[in-house]
Amino acid sequence: MSSRGRLIRLIPLVALLLVIAAAFWQQQNIRDWIQLYGYNAPTPVVQLADQIQLTPQARRMFYVNHPALQDRSAFNVSCSSHGEQTIVLGCYHPVNRGIFVFRVSDDRLQGVDQVTAAHEMLHAAYDRLSSHDRTHVDALLQNFYDTKLTDPRIKSVIDSYRQTEPNDVVNEMHSVFGTEVGTLTPELETYYHRYFIDRAKVVQYARDYQAEFTTRQNQVTTYDDQLETMKNQIDMNNAQLKTQENQITAFRKQMDAQRSSGDIDIYNKNVPIYNHQIDAYNALITSTRNLISSYNQLVVTRNQLALQVTDLAHSIDSSYQPINQ
């Protein structure tokens, strides 16, 4: 057989090998194409992607997971087998099996859905990192946690993951830092730029809805401090009133004895003293009653605000079942 004949036969084989190699290297893109074939993102999903300023790469990855914004019952079905215990607002099922976001309808908490969508998208992004890239990113995240993280709330969130999901702590750092920490190291900012056109907008969403909680919680704490001070004053006043009452009763008995024994001059001299004691006693009663009234009014205000905090917490708790009245 001539060399020309062998060459002609080799060409199809080489072409086949090249196709196989190309398919291997492009297998992720092929899977994405299959996932996106015929898919049209629902309007709410497109709006979320727009609002969190996703780059084309991140938007594609987001859509590949066919994200869904769901009400409580549907969300609980979609995320029932998900192990993430500290965040009940969203879940990501690996290997392009879906991103689900709990729809928060409370207008005071605008931004929760956006941050949750970004959080879960970053789980999908982390899932796609090569072994080399993941090692590098993990080191950046761990170093930031160890040396730069100062926000006690974020630290508390990460520490809770150490208890509930010890094998996924860095994965959670990847999502939490990217969506909730305003200032990162230059290396991490550069890394997250592949996913967000303007990451600061996502962080602002997080700050805005967190402020709805912290502002109220801080005010409740202030009210509690005020109530404690007022209660201590009321207790002191009541103790003083009891002392004054005993003194007045004893002084009255003394004056009665003086009048009975005919010591009218001494009795008359003590009358203004007695009346002054009565005036002081009555003034303290009035002051104490006013303080008790203010205390009770503040209790009502405080409890109403605490109820708002509870209501906000229920709004973001997918497992909460409202009581029908």
Task: Describe the protein in words.
The chain is mainly alpha-helical. It folds into 3 domains: 1-38; 40-197; 214-315, Orthogonal Bundle (Helix Hairpins). Helix content is 73%, strand content 3%. The protein has 12 helices and 3 strands; from the N terminus they run H-H-H-H-E-H-E-E-H-H-H-H-H-H-H. It has helices at residues 3-25, 27-36, 43-51, 56-64, 72-78, 112-128, 131-147, 152-164, 169-180, 186-192, 199-260, 264-315, and strands at 68-70, 90-92, 99-102. A 3-stranded mixed β-sheet has the order 1-3-2. It is elongated. The relative contact order is 0.09.
By DSSP (H or I, 4+ residues per run), the number of helices equals 12
Range of strand content: under 5%
Q: Major β-sheet, in short?
A: 3 strands, mixed
Order of helices and strands: HHHHEHEEHHHHHHH
* Protein structure class: mainly alpha
Stretches where pLDDT is under 50 for at least 5 consecutive residues are 13-25
pLDDT averaged over residues: 88
Descriptive labels:
mainly alpha; single chain; Helix Hairpins; three-stranded mixed sheet; elongated; 325 residues
How is this structure best summarized?
It contains twelve helices and three strands; from the N terminus they run ααααβαββααααααα. It has helices at 3-25, 27-36, 43-51, 56-64, 72-78, 112-128, 131-147, 152-164, 169-180, 186-192, 199-260, 264-315; strands spanning 68-70, 90-92, 99-102.
